[in-house]
Amino acid sequence: GVIPPFDINSLSTSMLFWHDADSIVGSNGAYISTVQSKVPGPTAVQRNGAPTLSNAYLNGHNAIVFSYSNATELITSNVNATSNYSFFSVSRLLGTQNHRLLTADYTLGQNQIWGYFDGYQNSIYIDGTPSILTPQPANNKWHIYSYVDCNANFTWNNNGTTLATGSANPGPSNMNYGGLIVGSDEHSDGLITESIWFNRALTLDETAN
Fold first, then answer.
1. Closest CA to 145 of 4, 1, 12
2. pLDDT(145) > 80
3. Which of 111, 131, 129, 133 is nearest to 120 (CA)?
């Protein structure tokens, strides 16, 4: 997959999970029911429609393809984040059905969004704090999003540029990829190649090297 700008292997002991589409064995178009973590940790499992595998989007690297019309979702349980954690993802949107792609499990009463919301990108929403939902109209480019919570204070980056900082509510119990039903259908047409969760706040040097 796409390696974020730090020495990933030296940080593996701090990872809760590392979901990498390049670790999935299968042909183009194959349905995906599970994504195993590359380090010991939670597996992302299918919920609702099954996403598919493709190597057509990122120089031959695998990507997980999510579909709005098929309501495709993967869920990662037992994240149980409160504060002092870091989350990285490599993702992009496809087409115009762009609602949520990286989100918390709304069935547990948590409303949390990283990156995309209703046609916008760079959005960040953690149960109301922070609450930045419509900062910039979405494009179809790749984004490396990083969110670091250090003692309930967050830093939100896109492709190495800081978008926002401030105080933050506790993180998610479960993570959803692809979107979810929140009264109405809030799935997306989009791609995820990598998703990494650390069980501590990474330092500036670790995220900037």
1. 4
2. yes
3. 133
pLDDT at 2: 44
What pLDDT score does 1 carry?
45
* Calpha distance 176→99 (Å, rounded): 13
Within 10 angstroms of residue 32's Cβ, the number of other Cβ atoms is 21
Q: Model-level pTM?
A: 0.93
Q: What would the pLDDT profile of 72-93 be if each residue is shown by its tens digit?
A: 999 999 999 999 999 999 999 9
pLDDT at 192 over 70: yes
